[in-house]
Each structure stands twice: as C-alpha cells, then as structure tokens.
C-alpha cells in the first residue's frame, strides 16, 4: 500500500495544472466574435479584463463587440474608462466613441470626438474612416441637429442617466423611470428627449391627463416635433380615441427621420394605428443593430407582418423577441394588435 501511494504522489507531482491567462480568455473572445457568437465573446472578454485589468486592449475590444450588437452607450462607457485610466495615447478610442455617438444620433458629440481623433492620431488606423465620418457630419444641415444642438461637459453623467432611464422604461418600472428622468431634466434641461420620455412614463404610471397636457404644450411650441406626435398618437390609441390619434398619425406619414430610434418610433406608431403596410415598410429600413434591444421592435413589427399576410415571419420574429424579453411572452401574440 505504501509503495502504491508513493507512486501516485510522484505521478501527481508531474501533472502541471492549467492556469488560464488573460490572453487565453482574450483569444477565445476574439474567436467567438469572429463567429458572431456575441454573448460568448462578451463573456470571454470580461474574463480577460478580470484577469488583467491593466491591459487596455481588452476593454477596447469589448467595446467593439458592444458596438456590433448596438449597445452604444455601454461601448462608450468602456472607452471613456480606458481614456481616463490610460491617458490620451489610446487615440483610437476617440474615433470609436465618435462612431457610437453618430449611431446614437448625438451628432455634435460625434463631430467633437472625430475631430479630436484626427487632431491627435497622426496617421492613425482609422484616419480614412474618420474623415468620411466627419464629411458626413459636416454635410448635415442645422435642422437635422435640432435635438443635438448642445454640448455637455458631463457627458458621462448623461450616458448614465440615459442608460438607467432606458432600463426602467423597457422594464415598465414607471416610478423609477420618472424619478431618473426628473433628475435628468434638472441637470440637462436642453436634452429634449428626456421630457418626452418623462411624459411617456407619466402616462403609463396613471397620470394620463397630465402626460397629454405636457405634450400639447410642447407641440404648441414646435408643431413639427416628432416625439410629441408619436406620444400623443400612442396616448389616444391606448385610451380608445382613434380619431384624435389619427390627426398625429397623419403627420407621421410624411416624416422620415434620420435618427434610428425616431424611425422606430414612427414605425411602431403606424403599426399601433393599424397602418400595417406602411409600418412594415418603415420597419424594413431600420438598422437592426440599433433596434434589437427594443421590445417594441419585436412586438409591433411582428404584428404588422402578421396583418400583411406574413404569419410565419411574424411568429419567428415574435419568438425571437420573447427569447430576448421574456415578459413579451405574457402578452398576446402577433395575431393580436393589443
């Protein structure tokens, strides 16, 4: 027995335990990303960051994955942290952030960061892409920038507010959303979208009259305000006043926004109002990477598809939405418009 145990001990001493390194996790993350297995890629990259928090390459690559799946706020948060921790030598972060801001529709921020990149990059990897982005931003007229005609020093705070409010709105935590949006409006009074999101949360928290009155006041100041028309159309439809809603829906027929989230809002409203063919056309031109994190995309697109004679695609989209948003499975399927 003694001899046998001694042999076993000797054999165990020859076994070299495998200790995965940060680079091991990073390599697996890159492989998953290349295969478009984004959830796995995020998991591996997070492990790499945990194993070596002082390597800026890992959060930068993770930000690229977030950009690919449309999580632009999360991507920019990572890039901001890299710049804060490792300094301005990582100038590529500026271009990546500019690209994310452009996707979000925050065009002034996009322009500021792309100009910073071009000033500091020398002959950088993204020079050509950055010049093209700047040319595109310069070509936009002032009207297209109406919601972005401001710049904040506390951009990180704004991103946190946006992400927090978005989370509560998506999960129908109306009281929490109202609280966050109230603070957001105090700190960033020129960020107009927060006001309309506030009215949306106010309506669904029970103060329907107050929400409608707010939107009416804002619409008097700007008769072409897309957000007001979208909200009022939705409010009236939910209250069972299709005639009142149609006044605002008719305006949206002639509106073709540049920002992806506004495009989604118009498509959703047309579907809610029963204009399914028009809604399907609007849904089809959306950049999916920017809308797949929105529950309303799956719900109202599938409903529009079902009512335009494409039930199989509608059901496929609905099931995909239920997978991403389990709460959606508690609602009626695409065969219902409620």
Automatic annotation (TrEMBL):
<dbReference type="InterPro" id="IPR011990">
    <property type="entry name" value="TPR-like_helical_dom_sf"/>
</dbReference>
<keyword id="KW-0802">TPR repeat</keyword>
<feature type="repeat" description="TPR">
    <location>
        <begin position="22"/>
        <end position="55"/>
    </location>
</feature>
<keyword id="KW-0677">Repeat</keyword>
<dbReference type="Pfam" id="PF13181">
    <property type="entry name" value="TPR_8"/>
</dbReference>
<dbReference type="InterPro" id="IPR019734">
    <property type="entry name" value="TPR_rpt"/>
</dbReference>
<protein>
    <recommendedName>
        <fullName>Tetratricopeptide repeat protein</fullName>
    </recommendedName>
</protein>
<dbReference type="InterPro" id="IPR051685">
    <property type="entry name" value="Ycf3/AcsC/BcsC/TPR_MFPF"/>
</dbReference>
């Amino acid at each position: 027995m003694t001899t046998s145990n001694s042999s076993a001990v000797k054999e165990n001493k020859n076994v070299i335990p495998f200790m995965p390194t940060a680079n091991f996790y990073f390599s697996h993350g890159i492989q998953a990303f290349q295969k478009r297995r984004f959830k796995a890629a995020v998991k591996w990259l997070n492990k790499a960051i945990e194993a070596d928090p002082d390597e800026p390459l890992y959060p930068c690559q993770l930000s690229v994955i977030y950009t690919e799946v449309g999580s632009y706020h999360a991507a920019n948060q990572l890039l901001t942290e890299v710049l804060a921790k490792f300094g301005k030598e990582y100038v590529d972060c500026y271009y990546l952030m500019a690209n994310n801001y452009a996707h979000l529709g925050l065009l002034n921020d996009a322009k500021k960061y792309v100009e910073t990149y071009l000033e500091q990059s020398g002959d950088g990897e993204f020079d050509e892409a950055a010049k093209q982005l700047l040319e595109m931003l310069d070509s936009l007229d002032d009207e297209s920038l109406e919601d972005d005609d401001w710049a904040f020093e506390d951009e990180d705070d704004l991103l946190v507010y946006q992400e927090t409010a978005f989370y509560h709105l998506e999960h129908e935590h109306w009281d929490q959303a109202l609280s966050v949006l109230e603070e957001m409006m105090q700190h960033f009074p020129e960020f107009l979208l927060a006001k309309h999101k506030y009215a949306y949360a106010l309506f669904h928290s029970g103060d329907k009259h107050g929400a409608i009155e707010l939107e009416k006041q804002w619409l008097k100041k700007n008769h072409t305000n897309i957000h007001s028309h979208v909200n009022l159309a939705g409010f009236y439809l939910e209250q069972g006043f299709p005639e009142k809603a149609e006044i605002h829906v008719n305006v949206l027929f002639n509106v073709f926004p540049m920002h992806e989230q506004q495009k989604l809002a118009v498509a959703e409203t047309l579907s809610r109002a029963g204009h399914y063919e028009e809604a399907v056309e609007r849904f089809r031109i959306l950049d999916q990477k920017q809308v797949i994190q929105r529950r309303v995309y799956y719900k109202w697109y599938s409903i529009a598809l079902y009512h335009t004679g494409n039930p199989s695609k509608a059901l496929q989209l609905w099931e995909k939405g239920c997978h991403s948003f389990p709460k959606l499975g508690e609602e009626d399927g695409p065969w219902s418009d409620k």
